[in-house]
Amino acid sequence: MRPFYRLLPIASLFTFAAISPAQGQLFKKRHAAPVPSPPPMQQVALYQSSNPYINPGPSLLAEPLPETVVYRQPLYTPPSYSLPFEGYRYRRSEDNSRVSFFGPSKPSDEMLELLSVIRARAEHISKFHLPYVFGGDHPSDGGLDCSGVLKFMLGDIGFSDMPRTSYHQYDWLRKARTLRHSKSIPEQMGGRKGIKPGDLIFWGGTYDSGHKVSHVMIYLGQGGDGTHYMFGARGKKMQGLNGSGVDIFKLESGYQKSLIGFGSLPGVS
């Protein structure tokens, strides 16, 4: 007779064979729930036509929203190039003699009016913040050079015969006998020995111009502290009181190696 433990596996087979059909369902593989098929195309279109967010009705239509600007690059608007006292004309004297330079120390009323026009125009141009540009004779060129800015400022207020270049402007004063050759800027303003507002100042050797004169500025006057001021265009690395190359600058008195001289505008007295 076989031992009891040898008969146990055979008995186990009969035990599992006796499972009921209902119990057997528990051991079957379960399938996922069926996915419903998508609606027909005409049904999808029907849903879209009834969706107020896709096809809003008249009651859902609103006024268009105003334009929203997150950032817009500001448009550059150049300054107005019209100068103060556009209709002003200085009545120049026909006698271009040295009397105009060595005349009375007190300027005439007409001369004081001219100086106020020159100073107003110089201050106005200096606020354009223009750089020094060689060959520029109008702000629309993007900048001005030394003789070009003086021609632009003085050309239409009685000095239409003013030459264009610094050398010819120097020759213009020399022929009118209003030029005073000097290597020094006087400390005082006015009088026979001083420098007067409205005088042109000439230097040489600022660049290889091929001429004796290469630079010109106009003298504006003296401040309460004795500081001299001049207006014009200087080199690209020079900045005036307003931080520009075409600006108002301080004028140092005393000896200047490259200074040639200064003098009054022809016909001014």
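(ticket continues) Second input and output from the same batch:
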Amino acid sequence: MANVVKLKSGLSLCLAGAAAPKVEKTVVSDTVAIIPDNYHGVVPKVVVKPGDMVKVGTAVMYDKNHPEVQFVSPVSGEVVAVERGERRKVMKIVIKSDGKAEAVAFEKATSATEVKELLLQAGMWAYIKQRPYDIIADPAVEPRNIFVTAFDNAPLAPAYAYEVLKGEEAKAFAEGLAALQLLTQGKVYVGVEAGNEVKVPAGVEVVAFKGKFPACNAGVQAHHIAPVNKGETIWTLNALDVVVMGRLLLTGRVDMMRTVAITGSEIAAPAYVRALPGTPMTDLLKDNLIEGDYARRVISGNVLTGTNVSIEGYLGAYHSHVTVIPEGNDTHEFLGWAMPGFKALTTSRTFFSRWMPCRNRKPDARLHGGERAIIMSEEYDRVFPMDILPEYLVKAVIAFDIDRMEQLGIYEVAPEDFAACEFVDTSKLPLQEIIRKGLDALRKEMN
């Protein structure tokens, strides 16, 4: 039986629009898009042009800083657009699918060198992130340990135990874990939700976590298993991405199809679907939005850490979750915050809903306030399940005090670890953005 780590701090939100436990359909889109901004820290170099024909697994761009890290097409077909923004920044690469799913055939890999080369060539390396800095892992640096999270307890998140790690997916997951074992002399850890089980190869250690969000974050799990120190490197992955790697290792073909939860109070029939990363939101949400003439926020991911992509956007490369909620910009409440707040989604004791039983709320995207000075002591500690002082770390990042940042654990954290803090923050500070900018500045300074 797996060791159980109990976390006292965390955040639990009851939201309307959870997905029904059934895969409704496979969403097949005419086009998919590769968005370079999905891969933080990457400087893209596009190697295709409009009119080029590609197969599943054909490289379409690579990272200029690490040319061996390639990004591949999830479909076969024709490159129809390479859209650029200011200063010729690559915004997206659009590929029109021919429906044939012709794929590049990769050779099977057995040794550590072959596995690494295969993951790099087939575009799977982008799924491996490293701490410190929460960026795509440097292929030249061997990790001390590898941490895989096999559950998600963010608001309305997909239930891995139900659909994601069953049947053939479980076999691919085990194959991916076995390959990861070859890439480190340390251990591979898999974090699961207490009460659930996953099949893993011999030598892989399973650790169960019992607690509220963000207990599902790989960084939080690493902190409680074997924290990263200055000068060390660890890798973190999501179980869904390990499954994609496993398919490649088993078949020699790239197959990025994944189970995606379509959720939120604005969804008429929340459910699971099968889709590729880069699928247009218009196809994912077709005929499934509640009728209304008000603005909606379409989020690739969950409401706390996801990306606002709009209905014209695409499913993110790392996401298996779509959430749609009201924007709230046309809402006018009588007396605003001074009302009792029986339906408010809050952790504050100043609203009656804080004392009522957990019910499915229908929040919108409003902040209900503006930025101000940090004045609420220990507010973050209630929802931050790491032995780190989050308030002081945020202040050190804002001041860019490198010594203080290191002492307070900057090398262990990622922006997603502060999502719950951002929700409860009375000061309305963009904590995830602050941490991201701090990590980027620190990486630039240290390198």
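Agent notes: The chain has a mean pLDDT of 92. Residues 380-446 form one domain. Closing as not reproducible unless the customer responds.
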